[in-house]
């Protein structure tokens, strides 16, 4: 019974808790037992909150018994990426430098999760300071992909992706600066949503690059992602990038059918140099939507050719500014990979940075023009499959290519523009998940989620689950 319970979605287990068919105490105990048992294999958690979690579960049970139900996530246990602050508890950023850092405040999203009645089970592994995509941590060890433990889970939110895919948490949050929600969600077979920049407040999230950072859900289903976005969205004056706009009812927006949907396809960038099996699966999902009444319109975004340089010039410059003092005084305490990148970031001049922002504005203008005539853009999330842990290259139709460059190539543009972007599973290739990316208009997460649900309804995964945790 416990195994079957843990396979359920956050919404499903929340409903069982609401109707008192299961107790949040029993659910939390089962999840913690499962997570502890699997952690040596997956290495998703860096710390557990067993006693605190059980106390929160008992509180949720008493509130629900008293008729004080807070919503669909009340009593649902979940773990958090370890760059989101929990007041009075250690948040490491998967680093040596912040290995004993304790915040006095909860992050904005943690406050909102507490208001929703979530039970926090622990903190999840990540790439050091969120600046990397393979989640091979020199301080906490590599996270293993539950679909194949020899493969990377994607990053930087790899612990979140692996934990959800292996039922070590019902749902989680990731942070995304160049794709760090969508990359591991794609590699681990999840629904992962990067909301519009400013939709979810980032107070209490350790920054990587101020103008590119986002927080969003990583979930088993689109419905779970919609419910989580509902819980965490909203303005917070403590985050200068937070935008005070109405929060929609994202779960209620799901439904309908694809008839009349207009899909934009940008061939020159998003379908160039793509693994042939990835392309086949993504185009199959588009064809399925067309068979159900959608139409396809080709769009052109020429400025995308500048996006990789623009993303790196922006993210590396901002990240190096954040870590400049530690780079001067204790560089040896950084992992070798990110130490190199932070040094590289200090080589960009102010002219380079400002030119990157000019290119960024052009990219944003062209995306806005392209989206004016379509509802969403659809593309591959990743152009290549997840490689073995420790590899710096990926395979692209028989040719070795740089892993970092290719993992962020299709996700980075949505960080530059701030537009909402989601990945959903599009099928399996040699036993590993392939993600389909949906990009929408600013603050129109409802449409992005709806299209994600349309793809999900076609059951591209054919009911298959990650072998580890199944």
Description:
With 470 residues, the chain is of the alpha+beta class. The chain has one domain: Amidase signature (AS) domain (Amidase signature (AS) enzymes, Alpha-Beta Complex). Helix content is 40%, strand content 16%. The chain has helices spanning 2-6, 10-18, 24-42, 50-65, 108-116, 158-165, 182-188, 222-232, 250-253, 267-270, 276-291, 307-322, 324-329, 336-345, 350-371, 403-408, 412-417, 445-457; strands at residues 45-48, 77-81, 119-124, 136-137, 141-142, 171-176, 191-194, 214-219, 262-265, 295-298, 376-380, 393-396, 399-402, 421-429, 432-439. An eight-stranded mixed β-sheet has the order 6-8-7-14-15-11-9-10. Helix 8 (222-232) runs antiparallel to helix 18. It is globular, with a radius of gyration of 20 Å. The mean pLDDT is 97.
Main features:
alpha+beta, Amidase signature (AS) enzymes, 3-stranded mixed sheet, 15 strands, 16% strand, EC 3.5.1.4, amidase, Amidase_dom
Instruction: Indicate the CATH class.
Output: Alpha Beta
As a percent range, the share of strand residues is 15-25%
The major sheet is characterized as:
8 strands, mixed
**What is the CA-CA span between the terminal residues?**
13 Å
Uncertain residue segments: none
CATH topology value: Amidase signature (AS) enzymes
CATH architecture: Alpha-Beta Complex
Q: Helix/strand/pairing class, anyone? A: alpha+beta
Q: How much helix, percentage-wise, in residues?
A: 25-40%
Estimate nothing, just give the exact number of structural domains. 1
Query: Which strand order do you get reading across the main beta sheet?
Result: 6-8-7-14-15-11-9-10
Count all strands and give the number: 15
The number of helical segments is 18
Roughly what is the average pLDDT, rounded to an integer?
A: 97
Looking at how many chains there are and whether they match, the oligomeric state comes to single chain
- The gross shape turns out to be globular
The CATH superfamily is identified as: Amidase signature (AS) domain
Output the radius of gyration.
Answer: 20 Å
